[in-house]
Design brief:
The protein is mainly alpha-helical. The chain has a domain of about 170 residues. The chain contains 14 helices and three strands. A hairpin with a 3-residue loop joins strand 2 and strand 3.
Protein backbone atom coordinates (compact mmCIF):
# COMPACT_ATOMS: atom_id res chain seq x y z
CA UNK A 1 0.00 0.00 0.00
CA UNK A 2 1.33 3.44 -0.87
CA UNK A 3 2.25 5.63 2.08
CA UNK A 4 0.00 8.49 0.96
CA UNK A 5 -2.97 6.12 0.71
CA UNK A 6 -2.30 4.89 4.24
CA UNK A 7 -2.12 8.49 5.45
CA UNK A 8 -5.44 9.22 3.79
CA UNK A 9 -7.11 6.24 5.47
CA UNK A 10 -5.65 7.17 8.88
CA UNK A 11 -6.67 10.78 8.29
CA UNK A 12 -10.25 9.85 7.44
CA UNK A 13 -10.57 7.49 10.41
CA UNK A 14 -9.47 10.27 12.78
CA UNK A 15 -12.18 12.52 11.32
CA UNK A 16 -14.98 10.02 11.78
CA UNK A 17 -13.74 9.08 15.26
CA UNK A 18 -13.92 12.72 16.29
CA UNK A 19 -17.51 13.23 15.14
CA UNK A 20 -20.13 13.97 17.78
CA UNK A 21 -23.75 13.54 16.77
CA UNK A 22 -24.92 15.20 20.00
CA UNK A 23 -22.78 18.23 19.31
CA UNK A 24 -23.91 18.36 15.69
CA UNK A 25 -27.56 18.24 16.73
CA UNK A 26 -27.08 21.19 19.09
CA UNK A 27 -25.93 23.32 16.15
CA UNK A 28 -28.96 22.53 14.01
CA UNK A 29 -31.84 25.01 13.72
CA UNK A 30 -34.86 25.61 11.50
CA UNK A 31 -33.14 28.45 9.64
CA UNK A 32 -30.53 26.35 7.85
CA UNK A 33 -28.10 26.14 10.74
CA UNK A 34 -26.03 22.96 10.98
CA UNK A 35 -22.62 21.68 11.92
CA UNK A 36 -19.81 22.31 9.40
CA UNK A 37 -19.86 19.50 6.88
CA UNK A 38 -19.60 18.68 3.22
CA UNK A 39 -16.54 17.19 1.58
CA UNK A 40 -14.09 19.01 3.83
CA UNK A 41 -15.82 17.61 6.92
CA UNK A 42 -15.51 14.07 5.60
CA UNK A 43 -11.98 14.18 4.23
CA UNK A 44 -9.92 16.69 6.20
CA UNK A 45 -9.04 16.72 9.87
CA UNK A 46 -9.24 20.17 11.48
CA UNK A 47 -5.52 19.95 12.28
CA UNK A 48 -5.04 20.50 8.57
CA UNK A 49 -6.90 23.81 8.88
CA UNK A 50 -4.54 24.85 11.68
CA UNK A 51 -1.49 23.90 9.61
CA UNK A 52 -2.75 25.93 6.67
CA UNK A 53 -3.48 28.86 8.96
CA UNK A 54 0.02 28.75 10.40
CA UNK A 55 1.43 28.78 6.88
CA UNK A 56 -0.40 32.07 6.31
CA UNK A 57 0.72 33.42 9.69
CA UNK A 58 4.32 32.74 8.70
CA UNK A 59 3.86 34.70 5.46
CA UNK A 60 2.39 37.62 7.41
CA UNK A 61 5.19 37.67 9.97
CA UNK A 62 7.83 37.58 7.22
CA UNK A 63 6.29 40.68 5.60
CA UNK A 64 6.05 43.47 8.21
CA UNK A 65 6.01 46.17 5.52
CA UNK A 66 2.65 44.93 4.24
CA UNK A 67 1.45 43.59 7.58
CA UNK A 68 2.69 45.95 10.32
CA UNK A 69 1.38 44.11 13.39
CA UNK A 70 0.81 46.14 16.55
CA UNK A 71 2.77 44.63 19.42
CA UNK A 72 0.41 43.40 22.12
CA UNK A 73 2.95 44.09 24.88
CA UNK A 74 3.23 47.79 24.04
CA UNK A 75 -0.48 48.20 23.20
CA UNK A 76 -2.17 46.41 26.11
CA UNK A 77 -5.29 48.61 26.23
CA UNK A 78 -6.06 48.15 22.53
CA UNK A 79 -5.56 44.41 22.78
CA UNK A 80 -7.67 44.27 25.92
CA UNK A 81 -10.58 45.68 23.89
CA UNK A 82 -10.12 43.36 20.92
CA UNK A 83 -9.69 40.32 23.19
CA UNK A 84 -12.94 41.17 24.98
CA UNK A 85 -14.89 41.35 21.71
CA UNK A 86 -13.37 38.10 20.46
CA UNK A 87 -14.07 36.29 23.73
CA UNK A 88 -17.66 37.51 23.82
CA UNK A 89 -18.25 36.00 20.36
CA UNK A 90 -16.47 32.73 21.18
CA UNK A 91 -18.41 32.32 24.42
CA UNK A 92 -21.77 32.60 22.65
CA UNK A 93 -21.89 28.76 22.49
CA UNK A 94 -22.47 28.85 18.71
CA UNK A 95 -18.87 28.72 17.45
CA UNK A 96 -18.47 25.06 16.52
CA UNK A 97 -14.67 24.86 16.84
CA UNK A 98 -14.41 27.22 19.81
CA UNK A 99 -12.19 24.84 21.78
CA UNK A 100 -10.33 23.27 18.85
CA UNK A 101 -8.95 26.36 17.08
CA UNK A 102 -6.54 28.82 18.79
CA UNK A 103 -8.44 31.99 17.75
CA UNK A 104 -5.33 34.13 18.10
CA UNK A 105 -5.99 37.76 17.18
CA UNK A 106 -3.66 40.53 15.99
CA UNK A 107 -4.19 44.17 15.02
CA UNK A 108 -2.57 45.42 11.80
CA UNK A 109 -1.66 49.13 11.76
CA UNK A 110 -3.00 50.43 8.45
CA UNK A 111 -5.55 53.20 8.74
CA UNK A 112 -6.32 53.07 5.01
CA UNK A 113 -7.43 49.44 4.98
CA UNK A 114 -11.08 48.79 5.86
CA UNK A 115 -10.67 45.08 6.34
CA UNK A 116 -10.38 42.12 8.68
CA UNK A 117 -9.73 38.46 7.90
CA UNK A 118 -9.38 35.09 9.55
CA UNK A 119 -7.18 32.28 8.24
CA UNK A 120 -8.12 28.60 8.42
CA UNK A 121 -7.72 27.34 11.97
CA UNK A 122 -8.74 30.63 13.56
CA UNK A 123 -5.94 33.21 13.23
CA UNK A 124 -7.72 36.57 13.20
CA UNK A 125 -6.37 39.89 11.85
CA UNK A 126 -8.14 43.25 12.17
CA UNK A 127 -6.87 46.46 10.55
CA UNK A 128 -6.84 49.75 12.44
CA UNK A 129 -8.58 51.25 9.39
CA UNK A 130 -11.79 49.36 9.97
CA UNK A 131 -11.65 49.85 13.74
CA UNK A 132 -11.42 53.63 13.29
CA UNK A 133 -14.03 53.66 10.51
CA UNK A 134 -16.79 51.96 12.49
CA UNK A 135 -19.06 53.78 14.93
CA UNK A 136 -19.39 51.34 17.81
CA UNK A 137 -18.33 48.02 19.26
CA UNK A 138 -21.41 46.18 18.04
CA UNK A 139 -20.52 46.89 14.40
CA UNK A 140 -16.99 45.55 14.88
CA UNK A 141 -18.38 42.48 16.67
CA UNK A 142 -20.56 41.84 13.61
CA UNK A 143 -17.55 42.07 11.29
CA UNK A 144 -15.42 39.85 13.53
CA UNK A 145 -18.25 37.33 13.81
CA UNK A 146 -18.36 37.19 10.02
CA UNK A 147 -14.60 36.55 9.76
CA UNK A 148 -14.66 33.95 12.54
CA UNK A 149 -17.44 32.19 10.63
CA UNK A 150 -15.21 31.78 7.56
CA UNK A 151 -12.78 29.72 9.67
CA UNK A 152 -15.43 27.98 11.74
CA UNK A 153 -17.37 26.92 8.62
CA UNK A 154 -14.04 25.87 7.02
CA UNK A 155 -14.56 27.89 3.86
CA UNK A 156 -10.85 28.31 2.99
CA UNK A 157 -10.10 24.67 3.74
CA UNK A 158 -12.91 23.61 1.44
CA UNK A 159 -11.50 25.75 -1.40
CA UNK A 160 -8.00 24.35 -0.93
CA UNK A 161 -9.41 20.82 -0.89
CA UNK A 162 -11.09 21.43 -4.23
CA UNK A 163 -7.92 22.91 -5.69
CA UNK A 164 -5.33 20.41 -4.44
CA UNK A 165 -7.19 17.30 -3.33
CA UNK A 166 -6.78 15.80 0.12
CA UNK A 167 -3.86 13.50 -0.74
CA UNK A 168 -1.76 16.34 -2.14
CA UNK A 169 -2.48 18.58 0.86
CA UNK A 170 -1.52 15.81 3.28
CA UNK A 171 1.65 15.12 1.32
CA UNK A 172 2.69 18.78 1.33
CA UNK A 173 2.27 19.22 5.08
CA UNK A 174 3.75 15.85 6.08
CA UNK A 175 6.76 16.29 3.78
CA UNK A 176 7.78 19.55 5.43
CA UNK A 177 8.47 21.13 2.06
CA UNK A 178 8.84 24.75 3.17
CA UNK A 179 8.50 26.16 -0.34
CA UNK A 180 5.18 24.40 -1.00
CA UNK A 181 3.85 25.26 2.46
CA UNK A 182 4.78 28.91 1.93
CA UNK A 183 3.01 28.83 -1.43
CA UNK A 184 -0.20 27.59 0.21
CA UNK A 185 0.11 30.25 2.92
CA UNK A 186 0.42 32.99 0.31
CA UNK A 187 -2.48 31.56 -1.71
CA UNK A 188 -4.73 31.62 1.33
CA UNK A 189 -3.99 35.30 1.94
CA UNK A 190 -5.10 36.12 -1.62
CA UNK A 191 -8.12 33.80 -1.56
CA UNK A 192 -11.52 35.22 -2.48
CA UNK A 193 -14.60 33.63 -0.96
CA UNK A 194 -17.59 32.63 -3.03
CA UNK A 195 -20.83 34.55 -2.68
CA UNK A 196 -22.33 31.49 -1.01
CA UNK A 197 -19.55 31.49 1.59
CA UNK A 198 -20.01 35.21 2.22
CA UNK A 199 -23.74 34.79 2.75
CA UNK A 200 -23.19 31.89 5.13
CA UNK A 201 -20.63 33.91 7.10
CA UNK A 202 -23.20 36.73 7.42
CA UNK A 203 -25.80 34.23 8.65
CA UNK A 204 -23.48 32.80 11.28
CA UNK A 205 -22.42 36.22 12.48
CA UNK A 206 -26.07 36.68 13.49
CA UNK A 207 -26.06 33.32 15.30
CA UNK A 208 -22.82 34.07 17.14
CA UNK A 209 -24.01 37.45 18.40
CA UNK A 210 -27.53 36.32 19.28
CA UNK A 211 -26.54 35.07 22.72
CA UNK A 212 -24.28 38.00 23.60
CA UNK A 213 -24.60 41.57 24.87
CA UNK A 214 -24.49 42.85 21.29
CA UNK A 215 -27.21 43.46 18.73
CA UNK A 216 -27.12 40.22 16.66
CA UNK A 217 -27.44 42.22 13.45
CA UNK A 218 -24.09 43.92 14.02
CA UNK A 219 -22.77 43.08 10.54
CA UNK A 220 -25.88 44.66 8.99
CA UNK A 221 -24.95 48.09 10.32
CA UNK A 222 -21.48 47.78 8.84
CA UNK A 223 -22.95 47.08 5.40
CA UNK A 224 -25.39 49.95 5.77
CA UNK A 225 -22.50 52.28 6.59
CA UNK A 226 -20.41 50.95 3.70
CA UNK A 227 -23.27 51.26 1.19
CA UNK A 228 -23.59 54.92 2.09
CA UNK A 229 -19.92 55.60 1.32
CA UNK A 230 -18.78 57.27 -1.87
CA UNK A 231 -16.44 54.36 -2.65
CA UNK A 232 -17.03 50.71 -1.88
CA UNK A 233 -13.78 49.10 -0.61
CA UNK A 234 -12.05 46.92 -3.21
CA UNK A 235 -12.29 43.81 -1.04
CA UNK A 236 -16.10 44.03 -1.28
CA UNK A 237 -16.15 44.34 -5.07
CA UNK A 238 -16.63 40.61 -5.67
CA UNK A 239 -18.96 40.12 -2.73
CA UNK A 240 -22.75 40.14 -2.71
CA UNK A 241 -24.27 43.61 -2.90
CA UNK A 242 -24.21 45.28 0.58
CA UNK A 243 -27.93 46.07 0.37
CA UNK A 244 -28.73 42.43 -0.39
CA UNK A 245 -26.58 41.37 2.54
CA UNK A 246 -28.50 43.69 4.85
CA UNK A 247 -31.77 42.04 3.78
CA UNK A 248 -30.31 38.56 4.21
CA UNK A 249 -29.07 39.35 7.73
CA UNK A 250 -32.48 40.75 8.66
CA UNK A 251 -34.20 37.61 7.32
CA UNK A 252 -31.86 35.31 9.27
CA UNK A 253 -32.40 37.31 12.46
CA UNK A 254 -36.19 37.19 12.03
CA UNK A 255 -36.09 33.45 11.32
CA UNK A 256 -34.09 32.90 14.51
CA UNK A 257 -36.77 34.69 16.53
CA UNK A 258 -35.88 38.39 16.26
CA UNK A 259 -34.31 38.21 19.71
CA UNK A 260 -31.07 39.32 21.31
CA UNK A 261 -29.78 42.40 23.03
CA UNK A 262 -29.31 45.83 21.50
CA UNK A 263 -25.98 46.85 22.99
CA UNK A 264 -23.72 49.07 20.85
CA UNK A 265 -21.24 50.34 23.51
CA UNK A 266 -20.34 53.60 21.79
CA UNK A 267 -18.35 55.10 24.69
CA UNK A 268 -16.36 51.92 25.26
CA UNK A 269 -15.55 51.77 21.57
CA UNK A 270 -14.43 55.38 21.49
CA UNK A 271 -11.91 54.53 24.20
CA UNK A 272 -10.70 51.66 22.02
CA UNK A 273 -10.23 53.90 18.99
CA UNK A 274 -8.49 56.61 21.01
CA UNK A 275 -5.87 54.22 22.36
CA UNK A 276 -4.75 53.15 18.88
CA UNK A 277 -1.57 54.77 17.53
CA UNK A 278 -2.13 57.75 15.24
Amino acid sequence: MKIKSLLLITFSISVFAGCSSDKDASFTDNCGGKAPGGAVGLLMNINQDIQMGLASVQQIELDPSNYPILDSATNPVAYGHIYRIRNTILNSSKVYYKDEFPWRIRIIKDDNMLNAFCTPGGYIYVYTGIIKYLDNEMQLAGVMGHEIAHADRRHSANQMLKQYGVETLIQIFTSGNTQQIAQIGAQLLALKFSRTDETEADDYSVRYLLGTEYDPQGAKYFFQKISGSATIPEFLSTHPNPDNRVLNIEETWKCLGSGGNTGTFDARYLEFKNCLPK
